[in-house]
Automatic annotation (TrEMBL):
Residues in coiled coil: 91-118
Protein name, as recorded: Murein DD-endopeptidase MepM/ murein hydrolase activator NlpD
Origin species: Sphingopyxis panaciterrulae
Classification of source organism: Bacteria, Pseudomonadati, Pseudomonadota, Alphaproteobacteria, Sphingomonadales
Ranges that cross the membrane: 45-65
All copies of domain M23ase beta-sheet core, residue ranges: 276-370
Amino acid sequence: MSSLTTGLRRWRQRFDALFQDHEIFVRTHGHVRFLRVSAVWQKRVALIAGAVLLVWAGVTLTVFVNQLLTAGERAEVARKEAAAAAGEARIAQYRDRVAEIAADLDERQAQLEEWKDTYFGSEALPADAAPKAGAKDAAEAKPVETSALDPRLPPEAQALARIEARQEAFSAHLLAAVDARALKARDAIAKLGLDPKTLVRKASVGQGGPFIPWRGRIGRASALGESFAALEGALFRMEVLERTLVAIPSGQPAHVLMLSSSYGYRHDPFTGASAMHAGLDFPGPLGTPILAAAPGRVTFVGRRSGYGNVVEVDHGQGIMTRYAHLSGFNTSVGARVAAGQQIAKMGSTGRSTGSHLHFEVRLNGVAVNPRRFLEAKADVLEVKADARQRVGALARADGASRAR
Ligand SMILES: [Zn+2]
């Protein structure tokens, strides 16, 4: 016999011992009845009761477990909902900023393209446009830093950040090209004997010319891209310098030799007294063509005391030329003249001892010695010709937009 069988039998014996046959006497109205509760019947009842109890326990447990699970699920769902709501709020907050940044980028792109078209046309930006060292005065270029977008921004915004970086790189390139050109013009002006700093400062005060400064959205735009912010000033400086360079009358006013020693204090040919001679004299045959020394607009045609017949041309940037002692005119007030265009004929009117041109250059009303302008070296003239082409294109664009 195995020990298992033995054990089971022992349990069976204990179980059987719990249930004994019982006999119960019941007396009702004097009659005595005899009830017998058998052990078998007791066992059946006990088994049924046990089974019921077991079923109840099972159901209860199931319900309880279910409840636990549902509570857990609910908590999970609630947690997810809360996260979604928070995310949505964050996205809504970002969406406004993303839209704002996108609008700024869009506007800046349009402005950059306009600047590029206006000042460089179809020519490609020079690859080596980085401003030279020691050119701080003209360049004042700052190291380019791409402003980082908010790192908490969702991934969609990172695409904007990439666009911004590219835009900033283009903007920096444009700035370098502008600075390089401004530097060229500045050097040429300095070689012609004028002070570029003063000219730019005076132009800034006057804000003359057709330059339309960037009046874009303040706010994010100013915080974005340093080079973009620097461009406006750089473009203004470049335009002033180039316009000034073009306005400097370096063209020969007559194809005759000038008396290069005639500017300054000298003996007045009429009184013999020491007097300031504010121009250069060009002796030559009567009727020699007199040419505009720079492009500009004729502001005076007529007689002036002492000067005789005079033509005056305004070249912009505070620069004016005067041609005196003329014998005839080939232009009229208000006419636009090109450099080298004939405006008059040489003569000897006014206080003149013989046929000659008296040529004067005035910068903001003050006479300056034109000799350095007329003796400009080829390299300067080359820069000047480049600038003239660009400013000419600008003027044409300006004229076209005005005509519209
Ligand atoms: Zn003179």
